[in-house]
Description:
By secondary structure, the protein is of the alpha/beta class.
Amino acid sequence: xxxxxxxxxxxxxxxxxxxxxxxANAVILNSKEINQGGFLGFFKKRKIEVVAALDPQPHAxxxxxxxxxxxxxxxxxxxxxxDNVLHEIKHLKKIxxxxxxxxxxxxxxxxxxxxxxxxxxxxxxxxxxxLIDDVVKQHEKKAIEATPNQIFQDVKCQIxxxxxxxxxxxxxxxxxxxHFVGPTGVGKTTTIAKVxxxxxxxxxxxxxxxxxxxxxxxxxxxxxxxxxxxDVPIEVAYNIEDYKDAVNKFSDYDLILVDTAGRNFREKKxxxxxxxxxxxxxxxxxxxxxxxxxxxxxxxxxxxxxQHIPIKELIFTKVDETTQYGSMLNVMLNNNKGIAxxxxxxxxxxxxxxxxxxxxGSYLIGENCDA
Length: 371
């Protein structure tokens, strides 16, 4: 086995040296920060010392068909026995990855672990850094030697504290007309049906539907199907006059839910068209429906296209189809918008969640801390 020590300014540079000399099969045995150089003990520079090793692969001996089966069985048994060892190796690899992660903050390994988790959740770098910085300051002020579990827990508390400043109301019936806007394919129509069923079953409200999504026949038929199932009246609005007539027709209803056209809202003209076809007046609430499976940048771009429409709160769909929830926090804190509902399936009305700051924090932190 060939063992060699490497010293470099950063972990990535050390890894490059190792790969160049020992190849991709090299194994990291140890890594640590050291101070080198300087004058009379001063001006030393921080560097990374890494000990790596390479065990050359011997040529595999030829085997006959007679003993091939025996060898395979032995390998299966060996693999089963090494499950715990493999788990430990994966854990050590993750720690090494955290040590190689270079950030301007130079977090200690346990804080780096939590920081990387936030980035893996697709949280924006600046927001993740702010959360970790706040927790680091909190621990330093109290002289706490925090465990990873406590760091996760304190980050979760930071998240919930920030979110408590936002609104999580959902439909309160303060406004009679409720619009749902958003791009195509996010589950807007199904979400409307869930809100309608909740309003009827839980709050005994008299509900009506208006659909202005006349670009997609399937969307109209889907909402009509829900209307039949819920025994709710529905009107189709092809233009602003149809919309006004439908609103007047349902004037004695407690709640009018409006399904707007789902289009490619990267095009500003579609948002302008939406504003012309729908009256966003004082007696109206509007919710922006977004899919949590979309890329964070796409979610931000869509929100920016709707920023000139008075959005009360957000609705995130397809929560059950992803394990990354950072996009929610990004758009909420960057735009001071709370969440009205989360949806986690297609069942009406069951798969509708009215979230809390604590629930959002749990989604982001997961099972990494004891709540």
